[in-house]
Amino acid sequence: MTRDEILSMPAGRELDALIAKAIFNLDPQEHDEPCYEEKNFPDGDGYSGFYCPRCGISDGSYYSNPCTPAKYSENIATAWQVVEHFKYWSVHKAMSGLDNKTFYTCTVWNDYIYHHAKADTPELAISRAALLAVLT
Questions:
Q1: Cβ-contact 19, 82 below 8 angstroms
Q2: What is the model's pTM?
Q3: 76 and 63 in contact (C-beta within 8 Å)?
Q4: I need a surface site. Which of 17, 32, 50, 87 has the fewest CB within 10 A?
Q5: Once rounded to an integer, what is the mean pLDDT over residues 80-108?
Q6: Euclidean distance between CA atoms 21 and 34, whole angstroms
Q7: 90: Cβ contacts below 8 Å, ≥ 6 apart
């Protein structure tokens, strides 16, 4: 993908699936019917996790379905998991002096190169900057 394509992507399922694959090395796939079965994972949280026999995704969390990408571009808690994959990063809230519009910026450093994105939400700025760092 090009830089311009990444920077123009809206928040949503397509962006979240790209992040799952590029950042977390997961390949979530939609299925017509529920595809997971409970397994006992020794992750220490006291809950069984999920395993999908169709796409092989497993997750030790009680609260998630591994075949559905997390909402990285729409939920700040999951977006924070994305940005923490980078050693150096920053997220800022800013206001345009011309129209008093608030926006967010995220910068991540990857191999001494910084990647910067701006968006209306911090989640979207984080998602775009992370993809720029790993895909461009």
A1: yes
A2: 0.73
A3: no
A4: 32
A5: 87
A6: 21
A7: 105, 106, 107
Residue partners of 87: CB distance under 8 A and separation at least 6: 109
- Could you give the CA distance from residue 131 to residue 134 in angstroms, rounded to a whole number? 5
Going by DSSP bridges, is the β-strand pair 88-95/102-110 parallel, antiparallel, or unpaired? antiparallel
Of the chain, the end-to-end C-alpha distance in Å amounts to 7
Cβ of 48: how many Cβ atoms within 10 Å? 14
- Tell me how many degrees the CA angle 71-113-27 measures, rounded to the nearest 5: 30
Higher per-residue confidence, 50 vs 74: 74
Name residue, tokens 């529920």: 34
pLDDT tens digits, one per residue of 8-36: 999 998 899 899 889 888 776 665 555 55
Give bridge partners of residue 107 from the DSSP assignment: 90, 116
C-alpha neighbours within 13 Å on the C-beta side of residue 75: 9
Whether residue 50 contacts residue 37, with contact meaning beta carbons closer than 8 Å, is answered with yes
